[in-house]
Amino acid sequence: MLIKHLVLITVMVVVTGCVSSKLPKEAFKLSPTSLEDKHMQTRQFVSVQRDDLLLASAGVLQDLGYALDESNSKLGVLSASKMIDATDAGQVLGSILVAILIGSSAPVDDKQKIRVCLVVHQGLGDSQSSLARITIQRIVWNTQGKISKAQSVKEPELYTAFFEKLSKAVFLEANSI
Fold this sequence. Notes:
Layout: H1 2-18, H2 34-41, E1 42-46, H3 50-63, E2 67-72, E3 77-85, H4 89-102, E4 109-122, E5 129-142, E6 147-152, H5 156-174
Antiparallel strand pairs: 1-5, 2-3, 3-4, 4-5, 5-6
Helix pairs in contact: 3-5
């Protein structure tokens, strides 16, 4: 019995030792749109300290219905998320048609989690300004409880709207309004 366990352990060690942990070449390759994405996701705020910008960002996200998941003021990082409905009428109609034709229903998107990550740091050449970069991701679950989509959100209107609200919040906070 002991010999069987030793042989099994030896085989497991040898097998796991043979597994390649080599990273694929594209692991650190930037996408063709990475510079445009960074520009869309980043704004500079002049005469705003990092902590004030982080606090205003948390307030804006909460006003938008997000719950703060994590926050680290030393690092200038916060993440927030919210669950929203992901039902698509076209998908539901397609599922109904499939059910009628085949007799089996197809899963449709049901709910989604929108996750926002924000990083704030002092400007490199200007200690009186701060930079904020926000990224937005979404995870969509279908009616069977399985993830049907996990993707970065790259709609410029969303980023612009967030930064407009953040600019207003910073202005109101700076002027004690």
